[in-house]
Amino acid sequence: MPNQAKKGSILIVDDEKGQRDILRVILTKQGYDVVDVPGVREALKQLERREFDLILTDLKMQDESGLDLLKRVLADDPQQCVILMTAHGTVDSAVEAMKKGAFDYLEKPLERDNLILTLARAFERIGLLRENRVLQKRVEAIQTIPNMLGEHPKMREVFRVVAKIAASTSTVLIVGESGTGKELVARAIHDGSQRRARPFLAINCAAIPDTLIESELFGHEKGSFTGANAREIGIFEAAGGGTVFLDEIGEMNVAMQAKLLRAIQEKEIRRVGGKVNIPLDVRIVSATNKELEQEIRRGNFREDLFYRLNVIRINLPPLRERGSDVKILTEFFVKKYSQASGIAVDGISRPALKLLMNYIWPGNVRQLESVIERSVLMAESNYIEPEDLPVEITAASALAGGIPFELPPEGIAFEELEKGLIIKAMERAEWVIGKAAPLLGMSYKTLQYRLEKFGIERPERRNKSY
Predict the structure, then answer these.
(1) Residue 329: burial class (beta carbons within 10 Å; 0-12, 13-18, 19+)
(2) Sheet harboring 243-247: ordered strands across?
(3) Is residue 462 very low, low, confident or very high in pLDDT (cuts 50, 70, 90)?
(4) Which end of the chain, N or C, is more open, meaning fewer C-beta atoms within 10 Å of its C-beta?
(5) Sign of CA dihedral 84, 89, 93, 98
(6) Please, which residues have CB within 8 angstroms of residue 337's CB and are 6 or more apart in sequence?
């Protein structure tokens, strides 16, 4: 017969060999992994070699006492479970030991059934403590950045890097597709730094015309251009001592890149139309959904600026590369929007969750959040069902599985659907175009054209290591 799994490990500490022998026989038969030693010094040597779930120790021994052992053990691990064995005349000492952290005491001579029952209670508590530690680690793993969840190894690595570099003063470049949470990471870096009491100011470089970007960053003097009716300070000056987040830095024009580079190198700025240099004291965190190395080769981004911004690089994985996180994100968003809307939605059905797990999420977490917000509002019951999901989710699943479906009156986002199917085919074909093209009923050249059209690249090329 195969060996049965042990219930747990027990270290017996007693200077009476006969007592140790009896306990070892009883507890071994009960399925426990038992080690016995004659005193405190031997016990401490055993604890250096391995961990024990429970320590069963006599109170009075020839060298040091069970109280001495309890004190040393709890100093190293306050959650270590210790049970004392005591003679009738030392019960008061055992009660005092419980006040200091012992789980319980047993009065000698030991009664077998009482011993087994006490150990069962102790291991029940040990199990609960172990579960709590696991749950706590999981919570820490999935939400070490406020409003950002993830337990996939790629996200755990992001959390690890953010925690490690937040306190530094180095510039940070965050690379990731739209909707992956780049600003959340930037805010977490600021909140974990010594600049947390100063402003965190963000600017989207793609949303500001080239003619105004310099003024937005550095400010301007009155009369420096048409419409400049008063002096205005830019975000670099306004964020003094804090952090500036330059989102979509890859969209900044080359001329402005040169001015930004000078500001970083010289640690000073000058307002548009101004003649005075202003000291610069900010940490710069930038983000992009572009591969800046490619933009450098195309002449769209300055190489010297890239190296200034790319001192620390954080790659945010797209949601399709961490599909296991879809479930916990869905549960989080269901609870969030159920509470916000006052609609009693308790969760999502398994069929509906399966559709979400199989979708490729071109809009990443932002798209998933939008889908869940809509689905909570559309739900006809306490659970989100497949019919409550947007048509692009159900249509993509139907097409991927070769299942016919009716085109809804409102139509579908065809380009997103096509892009998702191409990515799915490329992943199945291990990113070999010649293998993926037949899966889609396309020629090699047609698929190659669509890959370029949608900017689809193999993940290893798009997101390089830190």
Answers:
(1) buried
(2) 200-204, 243-247, 283-288, 172-175, 312-315
(3) very low
(4) N
(5) positive
(6) 343, 345, 372, 373, 376, 377
Omega before residue 317 within 30° of 0, cis: no
Residue range 153-317 forms a domain whose CATH class is: alpha beta
Q: What is the pLDDT of residue 24?
A: 95
Among residues 397, 387, 307, 392, which one has the least CA distance to residue 349?
A: 387
User: Are 97 and 106 in contact, with CB atoms under 8 Å apart?
Assistant: no
Q: Does domain 320-462 have CATH number 3.30.70.890?
A: no
Q: How confident is the model at residue 398 (pLDDT cuts 50, 70, 90)?
A: low
Q: How far, CA to CA in Å, does 404 sit from each of 217, 358, 395, 397, 420?
A: 52, 17, 9, 10, 17
Can you read off the two tokens belonging to residue 373? 């917000």
Distance of CA 54 to the CA centre of its chain: 33
Residues forming a β-bridge with 283: 243
- The confidence score (pLDDT) of residue 251 equals 94
What is the per-residue pLDDT across 216-264, written as a single tens digit (0 to 9) for each?
A: 999 999 998 888 899 999 999 999 999 999 999 999 999 999 999 999 9
Cα 171 from Cα 165, distance rounded (Å): 10
d(CA 399, CA 355): 12
320-462 and 153-317 share a CATH fold:
no
Question: Taking each helix axis from N to C terminus, what angle separates 40-49 and 66-76, rounded to the nearest 10 degrees?
Answer: 20
> What residues does each domain of the chain span?
9-139, 153-317, 320-462
Are the C-beta atoms of residues 105 and 57 closer than 8 Å to each other? no
Residue 148 has pLDDT above 90, yes or no: no
What one-character DSSP code corresponds to residue 149? Answer: -
- The CATH-assigned architecture of domain 9-139 is 3-Layer(aba) Sandwich (3.40)
Instruction: Take residue 147 and report the two structure tokens written for it.
Output: 């409003």
Per-residue burial over 388-418, b if 16 or more Cβ lie within 10 Å, else e, is: bbbbbbbbbbebbeeeeeeeeeeebbeebbb
C-alpha count within 13 angstroms, C-beta hemisphere, residue 266: 12
* Residue 84 near residue 105, CB atoms below 8 Å: yes
